[in-house]
Structure formats: structure tokens, C-alpha cells
Design a protein that fits this description.
alpha+beta, four-stranded antiparallel sheet, about 15% strand
Length: about 200
Amino acid sequence: MDFTIKRFEELSHIMHERRSVFPSSFTGEFVNDEILVRILDNANQSPSHRHTEPWRFHVVSGNAKKRFARFMQDSYKIHFEGENFNLMKYNKIAKKIDLTSHIIMISMHRDEHAAVPEWEEIAAVSCSVQNIYLSLTAAGLGGYWSTPAYFIRESRSFFKMHESEQCLGLFYVGVPKEDLPPRMEKRPVGEKVKFYRN
């Protein structure tokens, strides 16, 4: 029983340490591909109704990052023309990608029979993303899930996606700096729980 409690405490610690780490807090160092594959294998252990396993991961790294940065900037330009265009945000796109080791495009691939409701498939993909977050925390790495609408609309122009795939955003992975900003504390769980005992 003590061993079970120890494992619970270890997992609880990782969950409490989990946070979003943004590229501005990355060192620019490269994360070994083998580590990333192990992290994605953890993501692959997520639950899904009827075992549909709808999560898909398209990974950009190495030299492909430059091509992806140009694509992202072009997509931004398409959707923010004229006075809506922000040069600082446009330049930030390339800098963010440069500091990132791997960019994971996360998508949902519904089964051809649509055996379960779409929201359940999205929930399953979200569970896989939480597993990515927890694995990164355990490995001493950082990352965050980003959902820029301009990219989601243009995602098929870059990635080879199945017609049944739907882009759900990007996950940036990198090596965090030592002096990270303070972690945001959650409000007490007691504010969000109701027990019904009778």
C-alpha cells in the first residue's frame, strides 16, 4: 500500500507542477527526437470512447521549421490585412518558432462511421494533450497548446491531412529557461466540487 501512495504522490506532484511554458521562455535548445516520441507514446495512452483513438500528431522540427515559419507568417498576412496587420506579431511568429525545438500540429481524426459524438472525440484529443503536458513536466521540458484561428483555417495548405482530420491547434515544445515566471496557482478545488451523499 505504501508503494501505491508513493506513486500517487509522485503523480500529484507532476500534476501540480504542470504549466504552460511559452517559447519566449525557451532556451532554443533541441529536444532529442527519441524523447519526443516517448512523450507522444504517452499521449497515445489516452482514453477514447469505443477506442476510436482520434488524436493525430504532425511534427515539425529541424530545417522544416524555417519553411513552417514562412507559412505561418503568410497565413497571418492573409487574414490580417491593412490596419488589422500587426508587424510586431508578424515578426514574433518567426522568433517563436526559432526558439522552439518541435512544433506538434494536433488534429482529430474521426472514425469513418462517426460512432461517437464529435465532442467526445475532441475530449479524447484533449486528454492526449494533457498527457503531453504531464510528460513534458516529468521530463523537465516545457510547452503550450496554441489555437490561432488564422493557422487552423490554413493548416491543410502545409500538412498532409486525411479528409476526416480536423486541426485543433499547435503544441510548442522546448527546453525551458531556469528563471521561469511564477506559476499561476489554481483556485481551491473546494470551490468547484459538490458532494451528494443522501
